[in-house]
Amino acid sequence: MAKELRITETEIPGLLIIDLPVHGDNRGWFKENWQREKMVAAGLPDFGPVQNNISFNASAGTTRGIHAEPWDKFVSVATGKIFGAWVDLREGESFGATVTVELGPDTAVFVPRGVGNSFQTLEDNTAYTYVVNDHWSADAQGEYSFLNLADETVAIEWPIDLAEAELSEKDKNHPRLAEVTPVKPAPLLIVGANGQLGRELVRQLTEAGTPFVATTRNELDLAHPESWLSSFRWRSYRAIINAAAYTAVDNAETAEGRANAWAANASGVAALASVAREANILLVHVSTDYVFDGTLSVGQEYAVDATVAPLSVYGQSKAAGEVAAAVAQRHYIVRTSWVIGDGKNFVETMKSLAERGIDPKVVADQHGRPTFTQDLAAAIIHLLETEADYGMYHVSNTGDVITWAELAKSVFELRGHDSARVGEVTTDEYFANAENFAPRPENSALDLSKIKDAGFTPRDHAQALKEYLQ
Fold it and tell me: Any one Gene Ontology biological process term (predicted)?
C-alpha cells in the first residue's frame, strides 16, 4: 500500500522531507513526482518551478556536490537509490547544520536557496531528478557557493568511501567550511528609493542588515517599462517594494499630468506585477486613501474591502494600479494616507511658516490620520518578515481622526508658537483661485484592524509628531 503524502521538517530551516505515494502493480509503479495543489496544501512552499533537470548516474558510488545554488529546488529519484546530504551554507545560526537521508522513488526533499546539496548513488543506473524555480544561466553560477564533500567539520558519513567513489575534479577541490562565505538572503528590490518612503526603507533595512538593492528613477523609471524590463534578473530578488508613484495630485488634472499619472501609477505597476508574477516573487505596492471618495460619515473608517470610488485622476490611476498589482500571485497592497517623512511634506511646510512668522490658512474639512514613514516602512518590513497573509492592508498612524488644520496647529504648538495663528478654511475656499484643482476625499480615515491583527500597531500620530519634530 502506498504511503500518504507527508511533509516533515528538519533541523535545517526550510529543508523539508516529502513522503511520496508510489502506486505499484505487475507493470511497475507510478507516482506524482510534483503536484503543486496537493503539495502546497500539505505545507510545501509554493515556490514556482520553471525548469526540470535529470542527472543519470551509471554506477553506484557516483558522488556530486556540495553545491548551494541561488534558487529553490525539489529533488527526487526516478529510479535507483541515493544517499542525500544537505548542509546549510546560509548566513545565520544554522550555518553548517547537516541533514542526511536515503532517497528512493518514494521520497523527495525540498532544498531552499543557499542550502548545499549533494548525493551519492547507492545503485547502478540511478536517475536523480530535480525541479528549480529559476532558469539555469552561466551568469547565475557566480552566485553559487560550494563546500568540499570531505569537509571534516560537517563530517558526512558517506556510505561509499570518497576514495573509492566517482567524483569530478571540481568537486574534489571545493573549499572547507571555514573558508566558505555564508550565503546572504536574496535581496529586496526597492523601486523609488529616493522618495520619502524609499529613503526610510533604505534606512531601516540598512540598520537591520537586510540585503536590498535601491533603485531611483535613473535606474528604474516606472513610467517607462521598456527601459528596464530586461535589465534585472528578477528571480534573484526576494521581493519588489514599489515605493514610487506620480504624486502631483493637482497637476494630474492636466492633459500632460493625466498621461504621466497613468503611466507611472497604472501601466508601470502593471509591468512590475507582470514580472513579479512571471518570476513568482512577492510584490509590495503602496497605494493611497485617494482611491475612496470620502463620503463615509466622519467617525467611520474605510475597511480594506470597501468599494473604491476615486474622485481625481490621481486617485483613479492609483485605483487602477491596485488592480494591476493584484495580478502578482503573491502581493501586499498597502494603502496609506497623509504621508510624512524625510523631505518636503506638510509638517515641514507648517514648521517653516511658523518660524518665518507667516500665518497660514489650512483646510479644516478633510479628516484622516497622518502616516509617518517610520511606521509605514516598519509595517511593510513586518509583513515581509512575518510572511503575513497576502492581500490588502491599511497603514496609517493610530490615534484620533483629525483635520489638516488640527495637524498644523499641533506643529505650531510643538515648535513653541501660538496655534491660533493657524486659520481654518474649507477645501473650496482654499482652492478658490487654483487653476488645476483635484477633488479630495473629505474622510480619509482607514480601518487599521487588519495590520494590527497581523501583529503590527503603528504609533499614535500625536507621539509620532513629537518625535519627528524633536
Answer: dTDP-rhamnose biosynthetic process
Q: How far is CA 303 from CA 35, 55, 307, 308, in A?
A: 36, 52, 9, 10
Single out the catalytic residue among 67, 285, 331, 461: 67
| Active-site residue, from 128, 130, 237, 314 | 130
> What is 188-469's CATH number, 2.60.40.1120, 3.40.1280.10, 3.90.79.10, 3.40.50.720?
3.40.50.720
pLDDT in tens, 283-336: 999 999 999 999 999 999 999 999 999 999 999 999 999 999 999 999 999 999
Task: Decide if 290 is catalytic.
Answer: no
Cell digits of residue 438: 483635484
Stated pTM of the model: 0.89
pLDDT > 90? residue 206: yes
Give the rounded distance of the alpha carbon of 302 from its chain centre: 25
Q: Are strands 371-372 and 339-340 parallel, antiparallel or unpaired?
A: parallel
Q: Is 394 a catalytic residue?
A: no
3-state helix, strand, coil in the chain (%, to 5): 30, 25, 45
First to last CA, the chain: 70
